[in-house]
Amino acid sequence: MEFSLYPVRLSLIVSSFATIISVLFGLVVTYWMTQGKGRGKMIFETIFFLPIVLPPTVIGFLLIVIFGKNSPIGKTIEWITGSTVLFTVPAAIIAASVVSFPLIYQSMKTGFLSVDQTVIAAAKVDGASNFQLFIYHFIPLSWRSILSGIILGFTRALGEFGATLMFAGNIPGRTQTIPTAIYFFIESGNWTIATYYVMISILFSFLFLLLANRMKSIQ
């Protein structure tokens, strides 16, 4: 096989959608975790951070169990769409979302906790609702942390390999991303093409991490 830009394009697409999903979910969850009341938050937060410490194969296995053909979710998806989610681009997006979420959540949490509570208290006195506090105060006042989390989450999604390989597979021209392409070409003995993808991965990661560090330095 020859060098193809498809894995690069797919990685960027998967990382973009995964980051959007993680950010939207992360904003709501972060607000609830930092401002809401209720028990069990420590348990939920522990679950949120599990993808950081769990082996990628375990994450892939859990995703197969949750979204597989024999699971309620998997059966529902297959009934609606007529096909399974396994070994598809959406599967790669789901896997990337799971592994990128902890980084995005942690950065957002840091930002939300740094918001001046006197500003929030004054807004509450003026009659601001929780939704208004969320939209007009927490998000604008935490934008640097949110943006930093987006960059880190995107970079992590771009480098996702283990869970993606198990859940989405490594189908050239369909589900092959940069990390799985590197694995494939090394396994097939084509170190030259593997090196091209490695250099692309290093370049993207370096640029995005440099941008993330820049965001932290101006906070």
Automatic annotation (TrEMBL):
It is found in: Cell membrane. It is a multi-pass membrane protein. Pfam families: BPD_transp_1 (PF00528). The chain crosses the membrane at residues 12-34, 46-67, 79-105, 191-212. The keyword Zinc does not apply. One of its GO terms (cellular component) is plasma membrane. Residues 8-212 form the ABC transmembrane type-1 domain. Keywords: Cell membrane, Membrane, Molybdenum, Transmembrane, Transmembrane helix, Transport. GO terms for molecular function: molybdate ion transmembrane transporter activity. It comes from the Bacteria. The keyword Transferase does not apply. Part of the binding-protein-dependent transport system for molybdenum; probably responsible for the translocation of the substrate across the membrane. Belongs to the binding-protein-dependent transport system permease family. CysTW subfamily. This is Molybdenum transport system permease. The gene is modB.
